[in-house]
Design a protein that fits this description.
- The protein has 186 residues and is an alpha+beta fold.
- Helix content is 30%, strand content 31%.
- The chain has a single domain, classed as Gcn5-related N-acetyltransferase (GNAT) (Aminopeptidase), CATH 3.40.630.30.
- A 7-stranded mixed sheet has the order 2-3-4-5-6-1-7, sandwiched between helices.
- Helix 4 links the parallel strand 5 and strand 6.
- Helix 1 packs across helix 4.
- The longest helix has 16 residues.
- It starts with a strand and ends in a 7-residue tail after the last strand.
Length: 186
């Protein structure tokens, strides 16, 4: 079962967000990508985005998504062409050059009320440094500053994604819908 939840922006606890972004692990740096990414960021971005393949999907049989720099560039160009905003924070591990994690949202200034969370993930070998919490808090602060007219952030998570659900609960996300996804082999 998938849980859809939303965070009403008027209820956001800014002090919590600021606490989660204070005193970050100095081994990691967050970089905002708000337009098609520069070529130098594509390899670590692709690496971080691929961490979504590790996200729980209940008992569904889902193939891993194979990402390439070209595919990521094409997807980003489609968002720009649509007039929507896509903001991605990439967690970099400068010592290794690796992408350690990401969070991304999409927002349409023509329909400004809802910001859509498009994913948050941390590469397994970089977990345990509170990167996911820092990414989510940094993004919410960004949304509060840049998404004029936005009233809520919506997201969906697998019911078994305990870490992300706990993070979202702590931020104030509340359930607003549930989905049941069935899979049948033909």
């Amino acid at each position: 079962m998938s849980s859809a939840s939303r965070l009403l922006l008027e209820d956001v606890d800014r002090s919590l967000l600021e606490g989660w972004t204070a005193d970050p692990d100095p081994a990691y740096e967050l970089v905002l990508i708000d337009k098609p990414p520069p070529e130098a960021l594509l390899p670590p971005l692709v690496q971080a985005l691929a961490a979504m393949n590790d996200a729980p999907v209940e008992d569904l049989e889902v193939e891993d998504e194979v990402l390439t720099a070209e595919r990521v560039e094409a997807l980003e160009e489609m968002v720009v062409a649509s007039g929507q905003q896509r903001w991605t924070y990439l967690a970099l591990h400068p010592a290794s050059g690796e992408g350690a994690g990401f969070t991304a949202v999409r927002w349409d200034p023509e329909r400004p009320a809802v910001v859509w969370q498009r994913g948050t993930a941390v590469v397994p070998r970089h977990r345990g440094h509170r990167i996911g919490r820092r990414l989510k808090a940094t993004m919410l602060l960004h949304v509060l500053e840049r998404a004029a007219g936005a009233r809520e952030v919506r997201t969906e998570n697998a019911g078994t994604n305990a870490h992300m659900l706990a993070t979202n609960d702590a931020l104030g996300f509340a359930p607003w819908a549930e989905q049941v996804v069935l899979q049948k082999h033909l």
